[in-house]
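For anyone still unconvinced, we reproduce a single protein record, the chain in one-letter code, the fold tokenised, and leave readers to judge:
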Amino acid sequence: MIAMEKHRNISKIPKPSLQDAQHKTSETGITYLKENKCGLSNQPASSVQWKSSERTHHTTKRNVELRNICRDKARAIFDDKKRASLLERNLKKCVRVNGTLNLSHQNLSEVPQETWSVDLLDETEKKKMIVDFNNVDDDLKWWEFKPLEVLNLSHNSIKVLPRELGILEALVELNVENNKIGELPEEIGQLRHLKVLKAKINSLKSVPIELFKLKEIIHLDLSENSLEEIHEGLGDLVTLQTLDISRNKLSAFPLSLGYLTSLVTLNISHNQLASVPEEIQNLRGLTELDISHNNISELPPMTYMSHLMVIEASCNQIGELPTFNNCRKLREVRFGQNKIEKIDVCNFEEVPVSVLILSSNQISEVPDDVARLTTLTILDISNNSITCVPPILARLRKLTHLKLDGNPIKNIRQDVLKTGTLRILDHLSKKLKDEWESQGHPNSALNFYDACYSEESDVIVNKQEMRSGNLILCNSNMAKIPEDIISQAQDAKILSVDLSKNNFTIFPENIVTLQANLSELDLKFNLLEELPSCVGQLSQLQFLNLSHNKLKTLPDELSQCLRMREILLESNRLTEIPDVIHDLTHLERLDLAGNSINEINVKLLQNLKRLYYFNVSCNNIQKIPCELGKLEHIKELMLFGNPFRCPRQAILAKGTAAVMQFLRDKLPENSS
């Protein structure tokens, strides 16, 4: 009974709480216990003395346990802080070694505040700056610190980019893609060294105009946001090489697009665009263009985009293919799911296209001259309204994929169509051979294939055209004019000669024998690098087309062609307007587009009183002289596609009269 009573009394002793135990904490982190007052005065003296001893022993033991627990917790807290501090120091050290901070995939809802001070020195580091340089330790020296240049915050849940972003002035690359950011801070314009900005898959509805102050940016990705418009300031990003604004809600694109002459890749797919500005022709360095999945109904000519390699325009409302002439690097043309009704091969002159996708359009016929696209490896004309496939497609030796399914084809059996490209081409080859033999040619496979592929086949002259005064030898794979043809042309008193789309590297001097009557000469799309002095003997010449050659200048003897009314020199290698132009006082049209001309010599043009059409678009003209506005006889002035900033695109878009008036208004008041 006595033992039970003792146990009962001891159990009534209050236990010290953790709160009491932690009442006082020393600076070293060791927690001291508060004395426990148990109020045992009503107990008998002997009982109290005995229980007091028992209680003291029990309390002491518990106090030791609590002290150990609190000490361990204090040490744990101290160690956690120490580890956090160590981690922060190591993180700073890592950033300062390579200039990169990667916080991607960290489930962050906001940017850690320490991010903005990563370039700043703490108090300890500032003290180290005073140390003698000869006595520093092996740690990273403060003068070796590399500022933060790459910040990766991608794949988090960040909703706001703080204004402190502007502090990171050395930042070169900023990646905030795949977050929930609703807007970019205006301070982004302070990142004057920023070259790469990746902000796709966010909630952006607009971008601040300060973004267009980034004079060094080369890569801008704003895809998969909710952008409804882009400010005209986009044109100020003249160093931009890659621009991706796909998968937004854009219904129009700024005309200033034409100023982005350094652009190499442009993706504006999956928007609501109804048209593409003509200024896109100015992007002569563009290699990849994606305008797919919009509502575009037509495209401007792509003639000046000489570096274009891939164009993706599927899923639009385009009714006809644009002109790609002079796009000598173009490899892939993708126009599936549009409203194209015909294949115009003339739009692909000198284009080494290897992939042509025209599936799901409204094409009803495949012309024979598709066989001229000898570089084709993939031709997809599936899901159209084609009933007949021309056998001459068998001439496409490089063709590995020919897709014809989904067409009501009648001249190839269905079982053949299902067997694939090789069997189809073999079938077409046999049909072509049968046609060849039916026309009276020798029944020889060798002769058949030689005739199909010979590069030096006989020139066929249209005698009826010659009787009308026209000698048409275009697209004849010629490098010189046979003398017998020249003789026939002399007898026919030829007025016009068409030698376009051939392989002339040297001007055919025997054409000079036609000087008595020749008034028109067309040599576009050849390989001419210079003109001989004998061209001046063509005294009756009124029209001369030398577009798409390699000319760097014109001979002075051309000034003898006093009847000249029109000279076309588009897409050559001219760096200035040839001086000889000054003497052609009857000149009415002068086309110098697509060259490398640096300036407009107004004094040279003042003598051309009949000149009404003057085209110097897509050159390298830095400044438009105001004196040009005084040449009121010019009624059509083409200036787009040059790097000048004045007049702006808005003025150019108003037409020649507005441009000329603008230039006149800029003239000094005392100018006559």
Remarks:
- The chain has a mean pLDDT of 81.
- The two ends are 131 Å apart (CA to CA).
- Residues 541 and 638 are 25 Å apart (CA to CA).
- The first strand starts at residue 24 and ends at 25.
